[in-house]
Amino acid sequence: MSAYDHGPDEAGARGSGFSLYGAEFAADPHGVYREMRGSGAQVPVELAPGVAATLVIGHAAALRVLRDPEHFPADARNWEQALAPGCPVPARMRWRPTLRHCDGDAHTRYRGAVADVLAEVDLHLLHRTVVNIAVPQINSFCAAGAADLVSEYAAPVTRAALEVVLGLPPDLGTRLVDAPEEMTGLLAAKRADPGDDVLTRLLTHSAALTDLEILEQAAELYRSAMEPLRDLIANTLLLTLIDDRFHADYLGGALTTRAALEEILRTDPPVATGALTYPGQPVQIDGTWLPAHQPVLIGIAACNADPTSGSAAYAGTRAHLAWGSGPHACPAAAQAQLIAEVAIDQLLDALPDLSLAIAPEYLSWRRDPFHRALTALPVVFPESPPLHI
What we know:
The protein is built from 15 helices and ten strands. The chain is α+β, with helices and mostly antiparallel strands. A hairpin with a 2-residue loop joins strand 6 and strand 7. The radius of gyration is 21 Å and the shape is globular.
């Protein structure tokens, strides 16, 4: 048999398996991954009550899934139609006409347009933009001697940076995500007053996207980046505060913020579970039959730590799946990493004596099957005067 043999009669629905939405997984995901490994590289899980899926936790198997959209498509519509009424499906699993959720010609068209306009983002200008956002945000709490770096820093800096890149008025990202079809006035304003931003470039791209298609791609970019980028900043800041390799060496100038970011992307990525796919027919992978029209997703953190893969040993390298692989890999990795790096550098330069306000074991992690997200990151530091840009 080949790696992907079809057997309509061999693969029924798999059991609910491990819960990815409970307190145990939120508190210690790697402990759950270690327990899962006794069940193989593909493990039955539950994403929400009654929402069964298969989690791929083997690095090699993950690459096969990520690079084979023919057998593992991203289109969820057949699966959604078969759901029981009232099933609590996470919002990120709902189909939308975007590069994340489409395959074939539609994906090629959307992906090509988005990749092109992101490639035009001036990284030097983006660096300056993030500095101009970060410094006032630091000034808003530097005299207090204490802050929550999730709500008072990582979240507002991420939101403002994404709004600038996309070309959104302040605080409009959530409205765009919730109802892109109601935002056509935004594009009319862009036509009248073009900017150096993603929305303006999409309006003139050769793919000739409709207004709704443009708004959907912009909403997807915001939706896909807001939480992961916020959490990447927060998780990396936590690492610098609790790990002497990074905290001491950062202050001494031996290690860069980029090294800390790569460590988090490899060991504790903000998108711990992702790359949702929905096989249209039963598929066998490594001897395990996966049922048709049931989600298959990649345990990114688990795959990075797969003991059978050499990638688990490559500390300090980019041998990880945090940005994905294959046709649905993140198209904005360079921009996202730059935003995170500059935001972290600005904070640590301004407040080098940051320390946790509570013991690490008392930090709380959000119950979420997809994201590795702190609910708060409370810190203390010597009161400091405002910075000047």
